[in-house]
Amino acid sequence: MNMKTPILYTAALALVCVSPEPARAEEVGAYLGFGSAYATSTGAQLDTFSDGTLYKTPALSGAFGHIGADVFLSKVFAVGGEISWRFPAGDYAGIPYRPTFYSVDAIYRPKFRTGRWEPELRLGIGGARVNFFPADDLSCSQVPGCPASDHLQQHLAAAARWYFTDHFFLRPAIDLHHVDHLYEFGANWIPEFSVSVGYSVGRGE
Question: Considering its fold, how many domains does the chain have in total?
């Protein structure tokens, strides 16, 4: 799967969601933010360039971009999509790399929301892709998953929206990615923390 595919999908969903006349939707919105994700290292050491120098595999960390969109079909239930990716590319045993997580989610918004605060819970499935950018095929052959690997992921998240206007909101979120067979790192459970700014239409109308 090309890395551009989930990005283009989410961008298209965001455009649909912010349409001024969403068909048969209670509320639609999109958001963009930044955060960080973490997973431990495998602890392996690789002779990446076949020169006798060993490079330790890294922990997953660093800054992540975060983008999402959703369509509420009722006051409490919605569908949505999210994608997050590391930027800039990190260093994996001497080779630049970039992980990406994407999902399609069912969303539940509890009725106990008050004032300008609106909590939400998400559950979905999607994928994780790890892209490597090696200088040559020889160094790539020493790194598991190079030049790219794809994994199935299950996605859980909890977030809250604080509307500082009728349409614009801040969205702190905690995401939990469970990625199947993520052999590039030392854990399959990956927590992610982010804060986004978003825009929605249809709320309270």
Answer: 1
Radius of gyration of the chain (CA): 19
Contacts of 176 (CB under 8 A, 6+ apart): 155, 156, 157, 189, 190, 191, 192
Tell me the per-residue pLDDT of 69-104, one tens digit each, with 9 for 90 and over: 999 999 899 999 999 999 999 999 999 999 999 999
Structural domain containing residue 58: 4-201
Rounded CA gap, 19 and 29, in Å? 9
- The CATH number for 82's domain is 2.40.160.20
> In this structure, what are the phi and psi dihedrals at residue 122, rounded to the nearest 5 degrees?
-130, 145
CA–CA gap between residue 54 and residue 47 (Å, rounded): 5
Cβ-count burial of 97 within 10 angstroms (0-12 exposed, 13-18 middle, 19+ buried)? buried
E-assigned strands of 93-167? 95-108, 117-132, 148-163
> What pTM was estimated for this model as a whole?
0.86
